[in-house]
Amino acid sequence: MKKSLTIAGSDSGGGAGIQADLKTFQELEVFGMSALTAVTAQNTLGVHAVYPMTAEAVVKQIQAIGDDIGADAVKTGMLFNAEIIEAVAANISTYKWENVVVDPVMIAKGGASLLQAEAVTAMKQYLLPISRVITPNIPEAEVLTGMSIQTMEQKRDAAKRLHDLGVKNIIIKGGHDENQSKSVDLLFNGKEFYTFTSKRIPTKNTHGTGCTFSAALTAQLAKGLTVYDAVNVAKKFIQAAIEDQLEIGQGHGPTNHWAYRKSESRVLS
């Protein structure tokens, strides 16, 4: 049984955060575990309050997993502040976890900030160098690189800059691309570029897409897939989750975490 650990915040609405991660792990037949960094009062209309955990509380949760169960892959999501980021990075290094996926969550779908400004520096200094994959969307990649990203050439340049920070594999997601017909994710492994293209779905129900994509990627790395193959599955997983809409809530609704399994079942039947 392969095991994945998510170190992230809780979304009371169930669409993002550890809830999305654990649902995704389950759907991809990986045993999911969690270490909470913050509790949010959140729904499809936005983030109404954030209650961060202490760094000590986060560390205790990680150590409880590391000392007993272990993890084949680890995903980080909302880490909130510099102290938590530094503590998480230190413990990942202690347990020598190598399949580390960093989803640099900064801003919620509704616009609320989920990462303090000084935490960006800590992320670049402590967490990115020990990650195997980082999965920023375009706004997050702009913050991490300090550059504007509007073209594919700029996306490649940003990926190179992130690689220079010590990241082995960079996936810059295309959800914020200006192209209205398709979304193109760019993967850079330090040597080669790869693109993953999907049809853009006209919908407001995209809450938790970043969490879900990176969780699917983490699950596949836990199973031993290459980064390229893991991204390929994650892209198909999130595309199915967006296409098969649930229509929950009054705002940005969650994606459908069981859609990929249902589509796979239809293909096999």
Features:
269 residues, alpha/beta, 9-stranded mixed beta sheet, 9 helices, 21% strand
Structural overview:
With 269 residues, this protein is an alpha/beta fold. The protein has a single domain (3-262), classed as UDP-N-acetylmuramoyl-L-alanine:D-glutamate ligase (3-Layer(aba) Sandwich), CATH 3.40.1190. It contains 9 helices and 9 strands. It has a 9-stranded mixed β-sheet with strand order 3-2-1-4-5-6-7-8-9, sandwiched between helices. The radius of gyration is 17 Å and the shape is globular.
Number of domains: 1
End-to-end separation: 26 Å
Low-pLDDT segments: none
Helix percentage range: 40-55%
Radius of gyration: 17 Å
Write the layout of secondary structure elements.
Layout: E1 3-11, H1 17-27, E2 31-43, E3 46-52, H2 55-68, E4 73-76, H3 82-94, E5 100-102, H4 117-127, E6 133-134, H5 138-145, H6 152-164, E7 169-172, E8 182-188, E9 193-199, H7 209-222, H8 227-243, H9 259-268
Parallel strand pairs: 1-2, 1-4, 4-5, 5-6, 6-7
Antiparallel strand pairs: 2-3, 7-8, 8-9
Please sum up the structure shown.
The chain has 269 residues and is of the alpha/beta class. The chain has helices at residues 17-27, 55-68, 82-94, 117-127, 138-145, 152-164, 209-222, 227-243, 259-268; strands spanning 3-11, 31-43, 46-52, 73-76, 100-102, 133-134, 169-172, 182-188, 193-199. The protein is 41% helix and 21% strand.
